[in-house]
Amino acid sequence: MWIRLSVRLVVPTLALAAVAACGSSEPEEPALPPAPSGDSTVSGVVRLEGATPELRVINMSSDPICMVEGPVPSEVVLVGPDGGLANVFLYVREGFGDQIFAAPQTEVLLDQEGCRYRPHVVGVQVGQPLRVRNSDPGLHNVHALPSVNQEFNFAQPLQGLENVRTFTQPEIAVPFRCEVHGWMSAFVGVVPHPFFAVSAPDGSFEIAGLPEGTYTVEAWHERFGTQTGTVTVDGTSGATLDFTFTPE
Predict the structure, then answer these.
(1) pLDDT at position 50, please?
(2) pLDDT > 70 fraction of the chain, expressed in percent and rounded
(3) What is the CATH number of the domain that holds 181?
(4) 107 in the same domain as 94
(5) Range of 124's domain?
(6) Of 29, 126, 135, 169, which has fewest CB within 10 angstroms of its CB?
(7) How confident is the prediction for the chain on average, in pLDDT?
């Protein structure tokens, strides 16, 4: 009788040990190799050469929630006093080979405020969360129209509503629209690494943290297309790279 009791206690113990052993043998996802690091910054200015297109003014009179005092300029072509071109998306197109960069979990915000997307041009990494918010007291419709990523289209009828989306493939650049307000547009540049920037109102930009290497940098503008340039950095000091677009 004592022997039978011992057997009954031992068998469950062995079974639990076997289950624990099986659980510990589950394959783990391989860790990504460490990303190259550096302290070089590529900086420069994007300019528009020649006659500046006439600044277009947006008519928002169709919706009372969008009415503001004074004219609202279109953000498609914004040129500074010295020819600096704003809202140009710049990123390293070549130079990292097949190096894989982990996606940051820091969210990037695309807001709808004053019946405009803010910012007009923004960048995210593949897999990085993009939070889309409605800061207006009325209906907006968020419609992303990518070529290689998954299309999405949802309504945000109330102020303060937010939705989070991610992109799985690089794409320059994903258009965003609002069918409720036809003038609303934005572009999201999706890249596989953190080395990108958007030109400021004076056309200036900086791409920081580059390791030693030679890189092809592409500058993209929604109306004027793309320009490319090559730059070599040593991983510690900076370098200058300027771009010039010509009106159509």
Answers:
(1) 86
(2) 85
(3) 2.60.40.420
(4) no
(5) 101-192
(6) 29
(7) 88
Residue 247 pLDDT level (bands cut at 50, 70, 90): confident
CATH number reported for the structural domain that contains residue 71 in this entry: 2.60.40.1120
54 falls within a domain: yes
> What tokens appear for 192 in the block?
């596989």
pLDDT of 31 strictly over 60: yes
In angstroms, the CA 78 to CA 121 distance is 12
Please report the pLDDT score of residue 161 as a whole number: 97
Residues 171 and 211 in one domain: no
Cα-to-chain-centroid distance, residue 170: 10
Smallest CA-to-CA distance from 44 within 248, 233, 246 is with 233
Q: Is the dihedral of CA 79, 84, 86, 89 positive or negative?
A: positive
Question: How much is the pTM?
Answer: 0.85
